Amino acid sequence: MPDDNNTIVSQLAELVAGIARQSTDTDAGLQELVDSGAEHVTGCQYAGITLADAGQGVTNVIATHQYAADLDAAQERYREGPFLAATWEHHVMHVADLSADERWPRFQQFALEHTPIRSVLSYELFVDGGTIAALNLYAEQPHTFTQESIELGGIFATHVALAWSMMRRTDQFRSALASRDIIGQAKGVVMERFSIDAVEAFELLTRLSQESNRKLIDLAEALIESEHPLKRRHRQH
Fold first, then answer.
1. Residue 5 or 201, more confident
2. Burial of 144 (0-12, 13-18, 19+ CB in 10 A)
3. 157 phi and psi, to 5 degrees?
4. Nearest to 209 by CA among 226, 199, 194, 221
5. What is the model's pTM?
């Protein structure tokens, strides 16, 4: 790999490490990464991350330009396109000239009529249950992406997947802490109302959760809302 590409890979690794250290907001971190990809992958002008969920369809997560979001919307509408092919059929999908590639006719027609995009690279990022994600790189001229671009884009996609995984774990940890705090407040309400200790209060909440078929966190939030409605609304705002 040329020295310039080695430098880019090193910078990308530092960027991922910095995001992990700073506990960056997931959207902000992903935006920083796709901006870097659009800037450093040879020939790339625009970049975006796409998510497909069995229940929610195809959505654009982050994009450097509206073109990327529009193409994701087209893939959602027509259920075809390079992103879906990359995640469902191949790990990497390279479209050298969209005007000549007829694998996805409805997507192709939309792209040619509504965007100047002619070259596409799509990389599978991860598959998690019924959810799949991909990194997409775009250029306006056909035959823009060289073999070097494809290799560098693959390295970039690996780093994006790693960074996203770290940020998702951080989000889950923060969510768990927030849930623990809410359940703790609900326990306090039950302890005060029924003059019982913490263990008995938690057992009572757990039993109510099972009997009502509601998640414990939902039950706790409802209990806090009923006990302190003004306080709860204030915290949400």
1. 201
2. buried
3. -60, -40
4. 221
5. 0.64
